[in-house]
Design a protein that fits this description.
The chain has twelve helices and 28 strands. The chain is an alpha/beta fold. Strand 19 and strand 20 form a beta hairpin.
Length: 581
């Protein structure tokens, strides 16, 4: 077809246990992502272009086809335009040709449309056709000014290629909706998108794929579009919008932007092979750690009424006065002996250029020797007095790390260590189970108030569960601290069996996306890597890597910028899925 270049990618079969269990039987599908340029308001031309593109994708062997968000209308439409002429109503006769193609080729097609329902609702909708015709619709939850918030549950469709979930564009920004789709049993998530700019969309998608153990397939758009809805015309440049295929271990198998293509701009079909183990198809089995070891009892704040769009974004009560808090992340690889680690901490601290209020050390940053939680006292080899003295002498309000806690009957668990001035250090057991240590506590995440900041503290393992970040944000956290043993160390490291591990790049992406819930963040991992992220009110305003060019960094974070949070509003069926009610 004129103006269409065909891009072929290598088979995206990840080696991670997240994707393939030890099982030779698996279903393979060829997925086509249509990267097109919908003309604003040109429904007839857009539908004709989609008919041709979908047919070409099927002729080239596609089993599943995904189009951009609002592929039939363009982006900058109004509610009135949707009602008068641009919106489609079920059973969507304007898409009969697409439906017939899905039936003829025994495939599946997801099409992004503007929808008008018989009850006069107006929605940003995705329609899915399959071998038997119209199967399912999904509505966008996030608002764009012209449409209503979707009000139907997230559902999953079983196909021979895997169980399909559907999510529209920025609904993936926060973790909730992807999580529900994964809990419903999805193996593959189809994402029509209209998300331009080089703002790290693919990093969000990578984290959503990795934390949920599923394929993430996003079809975006290209071109320019003039928005005249708000008085002065504004031209959107969309050639930097990415389409991407991301495997369940968070690896990008395919990514495409029109502006990076040496050929002339044109509608493009991208192909990716997707493989799903047979035992996952048709049921909710999912080997992803943060799915199989969830503790819904720990996420209760998700159901509270704070920061809800429909209730005027009311904040959590009793917050400390907003203001600056100086936060430090110290990155090093902890040694076996506590005395060596204390020396390292003092040496790195002596090189600081300013003081700090809060210090995050790596997980097991002081000692890997077990700490007894019995009444007989803590392990004598752990230098508690030295750590307490360090906090007192340097004017810190809080120091955090983890330790291996020894309990009765010889059970071990990784626990948070919190050291504050004028009070004994405290231990807080890890929330979630780990593969090689004792069961988690199931308790809610640690939350405490300091001058100018409400602070949430997580072990690295607990931070891998996105619900913990949502819980803390809904509880009013200004700052989240992560002290981590979640990064992959050397394979022969004697401590490698402590937890479930991510590679460092995936950890950094996860840390960054946890700030989408409008919190500042400081993290340090036992691989010698850390991060400081300042949130400007829903976006990253400043970020410092720790360990790449500096092993201690301090950032002043203003908690006034995170007091208004933009979090999801939930229907009862959403909360039932997230909290196992």
């Amino acid at each position: 077809m004129n103006g269409i270049s065909i891009k072929f990618s290598a088979c995206g079969i990840a080696s991670s246990a997240l994707l393939l269990a030890v099982n030779a039987a698996a279903a393979s599908a060829k997925v086509a992502l249509i990267h097109s340029n919908p003309g604003l308001g040109e429904v007839t031309a857009n539908v004709a272009a989609l008919d041709a593109l979908v047919e070409e994708a099927f002729q080239n062997g596609a089993d599943i086809v995904v189009t951009p968000e609002l592929a039939t209308t363009g982006f900058s439409i109004t509610r009135e335009e949707a009602v008068d002429s641009l919106g489609f109503t079920s059973p969507y006769p304007e898409l009969d040709n697409v439906r017939d193609l899905a039936m003829a080729y025994h495939g599946y097609v997801a099409v992004g449309i503007a929808e008008v329902t018989p009850s006069e609702g107006v929605y940003n909708t995705m329609v899915l056709f399959g071998p038997d015709g119209l199967i399912e619709t999904q509505q966008k939850r996030g608002l764009s000014g012209w449409h209503d918030a979707g009000d139907i549950p997230f559902d999953v469709i079983t196909t021979p290629y895997g169980d399909l979930g559907m999510l529209i564009c920025s609904d993936s920004y926060l973790p909730d909706w992807t999580r529900i789709i994964a809990l419903e049993g999805a193996d593959i998530v189809l994402v029509p998108a209209n998300w331009w700019g080089r703002d790290g969309q693919e990093e969000i998608w990578q984290t959503r794929a990795r934390e949920n153990g599923l394929w993430f397939l996003a079809a975006n758009r290209w071109g320019t579009e003039v928005d005249e809805r708000f008085g002065a015309p504004f031209t959107y440049y969309m050639n930097d919008a990415p389409s991407a295929a991301i495997s369940p271990d968070g690896d990008i198998q395919l990514i495409y932007r029109t502006e990076d293509d040496p050929l002339s701009p044109g509608d493009t079909i991208l192909y990716q092979t997707v493989v799903v183990p047979d035992e996952r198809i048709g049921n909710a089995s999912n080997p992803a750690y943060s799915l199989s070891h969830r503790e819904p009892s720990a996420y209760g704040a998700i159901a509270n009424p704070y920061y809800r769009r429909d209730l005027g974004y009311e904040p959590a009560p009793g917050l400390p006065t907003a203001g600056p808090v100086r936060v430090a992340s110290m990155a090093y690889e902890p040694a076996l002996f506590p005395a060596h680690n204390i020396t390292t901490i003092n040496q790195l601290w002596s090189m600081r250029s300013q003081d700090a209020d809060v210090l995050v050390l790596p997980g097991l940053g002081v000692s890997v020797l077990p700490v007894s939680s019995s009444s007989s006292g803590w392990h004598s080899a752990f230098p508690w007095s030295a750590l307490q003295g360090f906090v007192e002498q340097n004017g810190l309000s809080l120091l955090v790390t983890t330790a291996i806690e020894y309990e009765h009957q010889a059970t071990l668990r990784e626990s948070l260590v919190l050291v504050r001035p004028g009070m004994p250090p405290s231990l807080h057991a890890q929330i979630h189970d780990t593969p090689f240590l004792a069961n988690g506590s199931g308790a809610e995440p640690v939350l405490l108030d300091l001058p100018n900041a409400r602070v949430g503290v997580l072990t690295g393992q607990d931070a891998l569960f996105p619900e913990t970040g949502t819980h803390l944000a809904k509880a009013g956290a200004d700052l989240v601290l992560i002290t981590s043993t979640s990064g992959s160390r050397a394979p022969n490291d004697p401590l490698s069996s402590i937890g479930y591990h991510w590679d460092v790049d995936a950890l950094r992406r996860m840390w960054k996306t946890r700030t989408n819930e409008v919190v500042h963040l400081a993290a340090s991992d036992w691989t010698g890597n850390g991060i400081l992220v300042a949130n400007g009110g829903g976006y990253i305003s400043n970020m410092e890597d720790v360990g790449a060019g500096g092993r201690l960094k301090i950032m002043s974070l203003d908690t006034s910028t995170v007091r208004q949070k933009f979090l999801n509003s939930y229907y009862p069926f959403d909360l039932a899925a997230l909290l196992d009610d």
